[in-house]
Design goal:
Layout (H helix, E strand, L loop, with lengths): L7 H4 L1 H13 L14 E6 L4 H13 L3 E5 L3 H9 L1 H8 L5 E5 L17 E3 L7 H15 L6 E5 L4 H13 L2 E5 L7 H10 L3 E4 L2 H5 L4 E4 L7 H6 L4 H4 L7 E4 L11 H5 L6 H20 L7
Parallel strand pairs: 1-2, 1-3, 3-4, 5-6, 5-8, 6-7, 8-9
Helix pairs in contact: 2-6, 2-13, 3-13, 4-5, 6-7, 6-13, 7-8
Length: 298
């Protein structure tokens, strides 16, 4: 039966740790192989995202595979929603794996369809396993041990934040979350409460970054003009974190809360380049995991 990567919860602790360790152990993120030779990956994106399309396409192509891209056309979205169980098995005649982007996946049960190809979630409103694991690998590269590390999240929630919440149970870092006032955080707080890990919700960015080791910048959707400056990541805000705190983007640059250009240009503070590297590493390791016959309990 095909292996699928939709959410971190479905992936599990052992596989999550394995992927992080393998991604960190890769000698070069851009290494070219023939692992995906004669394999075709289909990218079904309900929303356009250049960073996600570039990263997934690069991973597949650098491993010798081919990519078919289908953008945000309403017709197939309706068809897939109405006839998922009928359409998915048909795809196996044409492609070897399927990437989805923008489709909520938490309620999917692909095992019920007995698919012969893996489905990998390249980002959805409720989960983003590749981003979360890649960012954890980046933090481990710099901090080695995450048990005393605090990661602050500033901005609206998205799939990356949902996956980071799940990851706190296994990787044991502290997560402090500041969401804008208009965001309904009920379901996220319920999810965090089930984890039993060190997750704290605060009201302001200043509270979130206080003494933090890493700052993950989320989406700015819905912020008013009056709120915009208060939720931007400035050098003054960064000064409230630990002296060598680093800044990550938890959303696409075009959608993220504004970060000072001085911070983004500072190679010792901005982790954007490192995040890009580790997301490429992670997608390659995910392809290996999805296709190789490893132990069933991994």
């Amino acid at each position: 039966m095909a292996r699928h990567i939709l959410t971190l919860k479905n992936l599990g602790e052992k596989a999550s740790w394995l992927l992080v360790q393998q991604a960190m152990g890769m000698p070069d993120a851009k290494t070219r192989t023939n692992f995906m030779n004669e394999r075709v990956a289909m990218l079904m994106f309900t929303d356009y995202s250049l960073p996600e399309r570039l990263c997934v396409s690069a991973a597949v192509r650098q491993m010798g595979g081919a990519v078919v891209y289908e953008g945000n056309r309403n017709v197939w979205r309706r068809e897939l929603a109405a006839f998922r169980e009928q359409l998915m098995p048909i795809f196996s005649y044409y492609v070897d794996c399927l990437y989805t982007y923008g489709l909520p996946v938490a309620s999917w049960n692909p095992d019920r369809l007995a698919l012969r190809f893996p489905i990998i979630n390249a980002g959805s409103p409720d989960a983003h396993p590749a981003h979360a694991l890649a960012d954890i690998a980046s933090m481990l590269r710099n901090s080695k041990d995450l048990r005393n590390v605090t990661c602050a999240w500033i901005g609206c929630h998205n799939g990356t934040l949902h996956s980071l919440v799940t990851a706190t149970e296994w990787f044991r870092f502290n997560l402090r979350i500041a969401l804008p006032p208009h965001v309904n955080a009920t379901s996220l707080k319920e999810e965090a409460a089930r984890m039993g890990s060190k997750i704290e919700f605060v009201d302001t960015p200043e509270q979130a970054v206080q003494g933090a080791d890493y700052i993950s910048v989320g989406c700015r959707g819905g912020l008013t003009a009056e709120e915009y400056d208060d939720w931007s990541v400035s050098e003054d805000l960064l000064a409230k974190a630990k002296p060598h705190a680093r800044v990550m983007l938890g959303a696409a640059p075009a959608d993220a809360i504004m970060v000072s250009s001085n911070i983004m240009r500072n190679g010792k503070t901005s982790m954007l380049a490192q995040q890009s590297e580790y997301r490429l590493r992670m997608h390659k390791r995910m392809l290996h995991w999805a296709f190789l016959d490893n132990d069933d309990d991994v």
